[in-house]
Structures are given as C-alpha cells and as structure tokens.
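Appendix B. Worked example

We walk through a single record from start to finish. Start with the input: the chain for Putative flippase GtrA, Pseudochelatococcus contaminans, length 135.
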Amino acid sequence: MSNLHHLTEKVLRHPFLRFCLVGGVATGIHAVVFLLVIHVGGSQLAGNCLGYGVASIWSYYANCLWTFSAALSWRGFVRFQLANSIVLIWSVVAALIGEMLAFPPLATLALTVVVGPVLNYFGHSRLTFRKHTSA
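Next comes the structure step. The output line below is what the pipeline stores for this chain.
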C-alpha cells in the first residue's frame, strides 16, 4: 500500500495529469448538468451551454489552485474563458448538429466531451497557463 501511495503522490505532481483529472471532473459536471437540463425538458443547446458554464467556472478555480498553483484573478479568469470559448463554440456546434440530425442526447454529449478536452488543453497551454518569459 505504501508503494501505491508513493506512486500516486509522484503521478499527481505532474501538471498535465492534474489538468487531465480536473478536466475529467469538469466533464462529469458538464454531463450531469446537461442531463439534468434534458431531464427537466430543456433543449440539448441549453444543456450544453449551462453545462459548459458550470464546468468552466469550477475548472478555472481547480486549475489555478491545484494544477498550476496560479493566483486567482479576474484577468486570469477572462483569459481562461477566452481559451474556453473554443470549447463553448464546439459545444454549441455539437448541440446544433445533434438536434438537426436528431441524435440521442447521449450521442451529442459524447461528441462534445471527446473533442472538447483536446481543444481545451490546446487553448489553455497556449493562452491561459503559458509560462511568460522576459527577453
């Protein structure tokens, strides 16, 4: 058990793996909110947008405080949301495709959560949490 604990601590030191874990939880939050909206009679578009919003706010705080040990700030939050906007756009496109082609809600959700995290990591690695160096 001690070896497992040591391995877990070692693995969780890597920011990429922390980013993936935060993203996994954010994806779960997105999915739960999406499915709750569908359950109460909302559209796939409303579910995806609300799910995105709730997951995005949680993800900013978790990534700042745990993944990258960055200070929370409005400027950082805005940069985070700008990077996330590509995922929001993808969520809207996926929902519109799902509704237009009459996909079951879970197919639309799968389309969103498979492509979204790849776009998300690319945006955050280039904009939000990029290490700035002085010349």
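Two observations about the output. The first helix runs from residue 2 to 11. Helices lie at 2-11, 15-39, 44-67, 74-100, 105-128.
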